[in-house]
Amino acid sequence: MTVTQLTDMGRGRYKVYIEDRPAFALYRGELSRLEIREGKEITEESLREIREEILPLRAKKRAMNLLQKREYTSASLREKLRDGEYPEACIEEAVAYVESYGYVDDRRYTKDFIVYNLERKSRMRIEQDLMRKGVHKDTIRAVFEELEEDGTRQDEVSMIRNLLERKKYDAKTADAQEKQRIYAFLYRKGFHADAISRVICNNKIKN
Length: 207
Description:
The protein is mainly α. It is built from 10 helices and 3 strands, in the order E-E-E-H-H-H-H-H-H-H-H-H-H. Helix 2 packs across helix 4, helix 8 crosses helix 10 and helix 9 packs antiparallel against helix 10. The longest helix is centred in the N-terminal third of the chain and has 26 residues. The C terminus is likely disordered.
């Protein structure tokens, strides 16, 4: 197989193309040591070392470094590693490695995220945010149920009242157009229709 292109990625890293297809990224020193150059055949021994030794170890170290700065879901960690041009096999190995030590735990991440946002965002918005981070909907539902069994519940009516109080909404003086605007605003935030109606059609913000 022939190395057809080397593309400078900055900071001494180069994307290596084999037979005109992107294969992996290596540092300048590694290219020199393995004698990888454009137009030259790459040996099977070099490929084995890259795929089984160099890149898997680097992907694990990269994953660990990322997790030292903040917590990730398994899906978002995969995306960060893909940004680093790691092959899928190395990404899966790295994610499995950090999961085996409990450094990545989607259920724990989901629980922490829900608890932190429970009084700030609607349940629908929380679910949408978590799914964008790659958390499966079944995991989100299970964690919500677990929290509710422990007595941690969300009160959307109180949340809406507090939000509208900050916006200085007055149900007693609001006309139909204003109520419709507020309803649409709250609905976009993911609050349930019955909770919205109970507040904006009431005569006062708080009981």
